[in-house]
Amino acid sequence: MDLSTVLPLIGIDYDLLGQNERLSLGKGFFITGKTTASKLAIFDDDYLRSELSEKALSQIETTNYYLGVSEQLSSDLVPNDVVEKCNERLDRFLLSLNLNGKLWSFRPDIRMSWVEQDEPKNREFFRIRHASPISTFENKPALEDFRAAANLTRRIDEIYESGDKNYPALKTAFDAVRLSAYAFNTAMRFLQLATALETLCSTATTEVAHRVATTCSILVGNNAQERKELYREAKRFYGVRSRIIHGSGERATKNVLQEMERLTFTLLRRVLDDNILPHYKTRKLHDEFLLNVILERTTQGG
């Protein structure tokens, strides 16, 4: 059974499809037009309307297009397990869009889930997560942005599914970035991004700001001048992080937060390169890699 007609859908208020009603993005993701989504029987269910509220349902029905994910339901799987799996896949897709620099501002995210029978009481119920602030496009996206996210999700899936002991720093960084998208204020979002930077750039408990700034400057900078600027920028961000976490009452401004996101996402994309990613597979390899980075900075000076 193809669950694409009942699984979570994320609305997109842009014309991405032209005359096509449904377009595959690869990796089981798709974009579908409003006319298709409005035909889904689940949207017209009275019980669903009462639980979701007319306002939330209206938001779903007035969206131009939907990002969705298909999943085949085998006989040995519980429907709720399939729903959880698909919600996780959508989260990873959103993470990919963020890492590619295509998301930022807050907006409610509405996800539909499975409607089923509760035996022996024989009543219908469904699971739903909605009205959580996520990022949406500031500028009109291109269809290629969604295809690129579907491709990047494949690499992210490989890391998450590689085993509990593999890629610990990357998994922590991914989770932190995902949590940042659901933060309700700039300070909390900034702290999650700082967590992502720290887990990628330092395995030590001393001189953390210097280590984070050094690793960022080496991995992201293309020349000596860029590395110096990135080093200072990362040190400045870490100062903001320290003042927030130690209770100074400081709040990250929107501009600083956007700059922090830009650096964090650029670094993550760099780490995901084939020539760097293997160094993050285990903690030992990660330690050795960061030591080499520090030595390289010392050799180059400044």
Which strand order does the major sheet show?
A: 1-4-3-2
**Proportion of strand residues:** 5-15%
Q: Compute the number of helices.
A: 11
User: How many strands in all?
Assistant: 8
Low-confidence stretches: 1-8, 112-117, 122-135, 298-302
Helix content: 40-55%
The quaternary state of the protein chains shown equals single chain
Main sheet specs: 4 strands, antiparallel
- The outline comes out as globular
Radius of gyration, CA atoms, in whole angstroms? 21 Å
Distance between the termini: 60 Å
Whole-number average pLDDT? 75
* H and E string: EEEHHHEHEEEEHHHHHHH
Q: Structural class per helix/strand content?
A: alpha+beta
The count of domains is: 2
Spell out the blueprint of helices and strands.
Layout: E1 9-12, E2 22-26, E3 29-33, H1 34-38, H2 46-52, H3 54-61, E4 65-69, H4 79-99, E5 105-111, E6 115-118, E7 123-126, E8 129-136, H5 143-160, H6 168-180, H7 186-201, H8 208-220, H9 224-245, H10 254-271, H11 283-300
Antiparallel strand pairs: 1-4, 2-3, 3-4, 5-8, 6-7
Helix pairs in contact: 4-5, 6-7, 7-8, 7-9, 7-10, 8-9, 8-11
Write a concise synopsis of the structure shown.
With 302 residues, the chain is an alpha+beta fold.
Describe the structure.
There is one protein chain. By secondary structure, this protein is α+β, with helices and mostly antiparallel strands. The protein has two domains: 3-143, no CATH class; 165-300, no CATH class. 53% of the residues lie in helices and 14% in strands. It is built from eleven helices and eight strands. A four-stranded antiparallel sheet has the order 1-4-3-2. A two-stranded antiparallel ribbon has the order 5-8. Strand 6 (115-118) and strand 7 form a beta hairpin. Helix 7 (186-201) packs parallel to helix 10. It is globular, with a radius of gyration of 21 Å. The N and C termini lie far apart (60 Å).
